[in-house]
Amino acid sequence: MNTIDTGVRKDIIKPEVVPYFSSEQDTTTSPAIQDWGQGRRYFVEVYGCQMNVNDTEILMSVLDNSGYQRCTNIESADVIFLMTCAIRDKAEQKIWDRLVYLRSLKTKKQLKRAPMVGVLGCMAERLKSKLLETDKLVDVVCGPDAYRSLPRLLSLRETSVQGVANVMLSADETLQGIKEVVTLLGQNVNSYRDISQSDQFETLGIGSELSEGFKTIYKRKEGGRRFAELLDRVADIDPEMRIRFTSPHPKDFPDELIHIIRDRHNVCRSIHMPAQSGSSTTLQRMRRGYTREAYLALVDRIRDLVPDISISSDFITGFCGETDAEHRDTVTLMEKVGYDMAFMFAYSMREKTHAHRKYKDDVPNEVKIARLQEIIDTFHRIAKEKNQMLVGTRGLVLIEGLSRKGDCHSGRDDQNRKVFVDVVNNNDFGSGNVEKGKYVEVVYTSATSSSLRGTAIKSTTMVEYYSKSPQINVLQPSGLSNNLNEQLTR
């Protein structure tokens, strides 16, 4: 299972308190809440979007606080959870097939105890009855707003011959342990277009232009609210809450969107811009809709408007027909841009894609691996040089907790860089500890290619910190940024 650092405070996301289960009860007759799991092991499989990874962190917190233990071997699990996504029919069918397989585990004679199977997430909400009734494949069904009830559901299933479920939507489930950001998620998230009517917000119709030099194979639709306006509206909600978005496509970065990132102090100053390749001819075969020159021009435009922006990207080496010269174009693109983070992979052919229909996967595997290693080395060399240039400068870090070693605090700055923070025992920090979810101003003291280290100067707020930066417009939640106000007054 892949996980991400979500900022979830696992120590305070507790199971729900049930009046007839008290921690002071005699556990010989009624188990205490913290003993429900009694050391039983659970295994989680995650399907679909990044939000499901976040939900898994919440699930793990609830179960861990209820006496369960996570395991990495499915056959040793007492409970198996599928965190589902059912946006596409194919994804839903994959989960049904998986449930049939899991039923076979129940019939294995060598298992002393058949594992329970739970289905969580959006498929659980939509198909509760079918999941519980079809061949009795599932023991527990639980929707996203009801994860705190899972220990109780599992206990009820122990004494029931039927599966149990809770897919009720909650009006007040806020999970206060979550701090950090609102992350706008989606495939090509900045291609957002909302044509619904609203009595509260007038559609301004800004930000619909493609980035200069970019095109799309799909017919361009006009009208509706675009991503720049959505991002601005979300940022308007709370001046102390960071806003991020992923994963965008570089074709949809009009100036209006870049202005929002520049003008809004709580929109994080980091952009993910997947390049995939630095070769125009390879990009053409990939049907990416832009050239190397157009991509570089967009990077220059963004950095002109937001000089302290951090840029991350995706790269694929060894795409069909890739030559040594085309690979060299990727290396030089990485050198010219100087990425702060990169996700790098060797190409593998996928069925039912344009490449599968039109091309051959003809780059030898040993060549792919060698090229991948070269771009990895290139990234780390440049990222380390960039980060070392930050030593002696200051940044705003949101504390996420202690580092894995426990020798300092850790968090992320507004450029999404990992920062390890040394906290000095002084009047501002008392005993030398900083509460999770608090902002601190730090001075960077050392750097690697993937992280920074710094010393905390003082506790602060986002508004206070950026009020000292004249190039950033610090706005209270009361309307549009300067750029959108200009649009309204024209």
Automatic annotation (TrEMBL):
InterPro entries: Elp3/MiaA/NifB-like_rSAM, Methylthiotransferase_N, Methylthiotransferase_N_sf, rSAM, rSAM_sf, TRAM_dom
Keywords: 4Fe-4S, Iron, Iron-sulfur, Metal-binding, S-adenosyl-L-methionine
The keyword Translocase is annotated on this UniProt entry: no
Start and end residues of each MTTase N-terminal domain: 40-159
Molecular function via GO: 4 iron, 4 sulfur cluster binding; metal ion binding; tRNA-2-methylthio-N(6)-dimethylallyladenosine(37) synthase activity
PROSITE patterns, alphabetized: MTTASE_N (PS51449), RADICAL_SAM (PS51918), TRAM (PS50926)
SMART domains the UniProt entry points to: Elp3
Every Radical SAM core domain range: 124-385
Cellular compartments per GO CC: cytosol; mitochondrion
Chain ranges of the TRAM domain: 388-458
Pfam families: Radical_SAM (PF04055), UPF0004 (PF00919)
Membrane-crossing residue ranges in chain numbering: none
Presence of keyword tRNA-binding: no
PANTHER family noted in UniProt: CDK5 REGULATORY SUBUNIT-ASSOCIATED PROTEIN 1, MITOCHONDRIAL TRNA METHYLTHIOTRANSFERASE CDK5RAP1
Identification of the protein by name: CDK5 regulatory subunit-associated protein 1
